[in-house]
Amino acid sequence: MxxxxxxxxxxxxxxxxxxxxxxxxxxxxLAREYVSELWDYTRISATQNSLQxxxxxxxRWNDETKQLFYSNYGDxxxxxxxxxxxxxxxxxxxxxxxxxxxxxxxxxxLVPIVEEYIALLRCPKFQVDKAYSKAAYVPAFWKKxxxxxxxxxxxxxxxxxxxxxxxxILWKNLQT
Length: 176
Known about the structure:
51% helix; mainly alpha; DUF7745 domain-containing protein; DUF7745
């Protein structure tokens, strides 16, 4: 087994050497006059946004624009209200492993569990025994439901029930 691994490593090294040799001998396979069109399609910005500026932009938006933002990006604006310990983030940044999207200390990977996210984000309304999902915008959901089931708005209004903090339609009512 170990020999197969070493053979593959050697094969990869041989391919790498061959690739570099051909590149040096023959050059790129692009025409000399070739001009990349990549700049027409991409833009790279390395500026860091000011949190205060983002808050001011958010405050200038009307409710309709904010609702549209929520429907596209979820609860992201709630992060404006979270206090950030910058020194802690700077210290942790050196241990961030982008390949696994977690913190790695030596051979230990730290992937937060749901309870830790609740504590970190100070979100007491999470239900640990259930998968978290953003509440659907009810009028838009009704329209989609009407299109799928072919039911009328009156039927949906009659059948909708309050269950805890959410509104729902019982599955047995949808099956009929």
